[in-house]
Amino acid sequence: MAKFVVTPANEEQRAAWQSRVAMPEVERVRPGLWSIPVPIPINPLRYVLVYALELPGGVVIVDAGWNTDEAYRALCDGLSVAGYSITDVKGVLVTHIHPDHYGLAGRVRESSGAWIALHPADANLLHDRYDDGAIDALVEKERRILVRSGVPRLTLDELAGASMMIRHMVSMAKPDRLVEDGEALGLPGWDLRAIWTPGHSPGHLCFVSPERRILFSGDHVLAKITPIVAVHPQSGPNPLADYLDSLAAVRKWDVDEVLPAHEYRFLELAERVDHVMLHHEERLAEIEAVAADVASGISCWDIATRLTWSRPWETIPPFMRRSANNETLAHLVWLESRGRLRRIAGDVDLWVPA
How far apart are CA 120 and CA 180, in angstroms? Predict the structure, then answer.
């Protein structure tokens, strides 16, 4: 794939990301808008960018960070730089319910009385994902997906429960407000509108300001990496189809700047969307080619081990191997839905050319 590099909106922010060590500065992006990096412990993403939108008498934040004391202090300190305290937060617009975005929302509400807003599709997943009484059932559903994918028995238990290590990074808080696709948020001084962008999460939201020509993109569109789009117990039946449709939904907006939740702000939305779409087209072709090499059929897991990843398969840790398998499965499901591959159902599903 031809390389395309977006233009960073702030070179220092990009340099901080590329350093793999430094945190970007708290930044006044433009009048009434602040960027606050909140650390993510033991994670290659390192931080989430929380955005504070100034309102009369306070702020609304886009995302919140993980539920750790370090993250909470960083959020409070960042708000202080902007001239506010945690008690000034009037609302939390959560792009999606992954721990680095939603995890601190409940603690912020306890401190400030802020409302929490989610898309209904993600709100409906909260109990099964974060309620202690439902976790075992979710892990068992994940286990069944991995079994049918052909994951070796020796690694099955480790992969099925791999995400439990970050379960404590979330304080479950039911939303006070449900935000639908196209809804005007009604924030004083802001013409912010929600765009429902399922794929990475069934209820992922982006927020666009046509007047200010900016897009808060969450994890949907990032400057360099692509978000995980995977089949899992809480995904839609064809998450890659959802994601590609969602990319088209944001591409039509004419904005000057994209404000993502990770990495750094950048300028070229349409070109970046086109590049991400091309990446998935090439991945789909690679998976088709691998499947075509095995006439008797091949499992999802065996396909995943033969694909090109950012590092050798042997060096990928368990949690990321599970993501790699489930991402591969999302591409297989998309190919099946287009009649390009066929699934031979069994204890382990096998994939063959259609």
Answer: 7
